[in-house]
Amino acid sequence: MREYNTEILSVGTELLLGHVTNTDARDISEELSRLGINVRYHTVVGDNPQRMRDCVALARSRADIIITTGGLGPTVDDLTKVVLAESFGLKLVENQAEREQMYEYITYSNHFTENNYNQVMLPEGCTVFHNNCGTAPGCAFEADGTIVIMLPGPPKECRAMFRESVIPYLRTLSDKVIVSHSVRIFGLGESAVDDLFAAEMNSMRNPTMAPYAKECDCLLQVTAKADSEAEAEEMLRPVMAQVCEKLGDYVYGTDVECMEEAVLQLLQKNPKTFALAESCTGGEVAARFTELPGASEFLKGGAVTYTNEAKAVMLGIDRQFIESNLAVSEPVARAMAEHMRAVLNTDLAVGITGLAGPGGDGVHEVGTVFVALAAENGTWVRELHMGPQRTRSFIRRMAGNHAYDMIRRWLTGKEVAGNRSCPAF
Question: What is the pLDDT of residues 98-129, one digit of tens each?
């Protein structure tokens, strides 16, 4: 199989100014790694035609595949197609099928203008990628030995188009099939996973393994290349079994995006209801779960009890009990979980209280969090110390990961309070 080197060219002055975070390049790189395609360069350029031409010329000199994001919209500064077509000597022609589908999409808009049709002007002879999440189609073409793929900038549109259209397109470039599985890990960082599997990774050629650090967890990507999907899966089976056996309880799921998705899958196999009482996380743990389709079948509700008064009024915890133990404490986390479970009559309930910063309470340092899980057969509490150098967002997300990890362990019959330590990432 030919080895392809890729450059991702992200277009948009808003990226250079820092007004928008370039998540497209990150997402595409992650997807390409699963396909075994090398990403050699990330480039960001503003909405300037000459600078875009210069970046395209440089990319052509060093990459087999150029993937652009952004600049496919209807406005005068959306120049990606114009510059790419010009650079490769192609004409832009109207795609009638995309125009008709766009008309159906924009009939629901109260602010349609004719310049929207600029989006259906595409390089002649290209492969068109329909946009199921917006109006700007993407496309791909090959010219002078270079493969060019153009994607819209909005992250939701970019991710969907890449998965629905670009991955199948890229797979046609080779007679080999690449299959990849991700092992999601909580409690070990990337360096620990790398150390654990260093010997295997150094000796493996096909399949291969590679660890990747995420914000509050880690994944190990296992990839195989073969003549067929079935053959690749057969190659991966013993490797996946070995990996999962070696990692043990640290594995929270395979081929899932996050801890809450793994919990949802477990709940679908073993239906239980749960509720959440959150203080320092401010409802974030509930918000994460409700992003998933089907969440309402299991999550019955929650309460953001940010103050002592809220804990007393909404959960029925004695105010004197809270004050005597301190709001950030194991007894209060335990009481939050147990009272929340009683209020909504659920199988399980979580209570979270802690200090996300920047200020402390005079007793605990910032980064101290207590996470409790209440069930009919007991209540468990984890005491976490993440350190005052951590950001509020990290502390809140990590607390949520511990909450879901405790639910996961209860559902699978593992020690619930295990994995107490807050992993370092």
Answer: 888 877 666 666 566 777 788 999 999 999 99
What pairing do the DSSP bridges indicate for beta strands 368-375 and 378-385? antiparallel
* CA 17/CA 23 separation, integer angstroms: 15
Measured CA to CA, the distance from residue 337 to residue 339 in angstroms comes to 6
Sign of the C-alpha dihedral computed for residues 372, 302, 361 and 366 taken in this order: positive
Q: What is the C-alpha separation between 225 and 173, in angstroms, rounded?
A: 14
Rounded Cα distance, 248 and 112, in Å: 55
- Paired with 380 in beta bridges are 373
Render pLDDT for 257-298 as a digit per residue (tens, 0 to 9). Answer: 999 999 999 999 999 999 999 999 999 999 999 999 999 999
Q: Rounded distance, CA 335 to CA 372, Å?
A: 9
* Burial label, 414 (beta-carbon count in 10 A; 0-12, 13-18, 19+): middle
| Residue whose structure tokens are 């004197």 | 320
Residue 199 CB coordination number (10 Å): 9
155-185 tens-digit pLDDT: 999 999 999 999 999 988 877 888 899 999 9
Residue 23 has pLDDT above 80, yes or no: yes
Q: Token digits for 153? A: 């900038």
Tokens encoding 392:
């509020």
Q: What residues pair up with 94 in beta bridges, in sequence order?
A: 121
10 forms beta bridges with 44, 69
Do residues 180 and 210 lie in contact, with contact meaning Cβ atoms separated by under 8 Å? no
DSSP state of 21: -
Amino acid at 356: A
Exposure string over 288-309, b if 16+ CB within 10 A, otherwise e: bbeebeeeeebbbebbbbbebe
Residue owning tokens 């209860």: 410
**Beta-ladder partners of 36:** none
Q: Which residues pair with 146 in a beta bridge?
A: 143
Q: What is the rounded distance in angstroms from the CA atom of residue 408 to the CA atom of residue 264?
A: 9
How far is Cα 214 from Cα 211, in angstroms, rounded to an integer?
Answer: 10
High-pLDDT (> 70) share of the chain, %: 95
What distance in Å separates the CA atoms of residue 370 and residue 349, rounded to the nearest whole number? 14
Residue 83: half-sphere exposure toward Cβ, Cα within 13 Å: 25
Handedness of CA 311, 313, 314, 315 (dihedral sign): positive
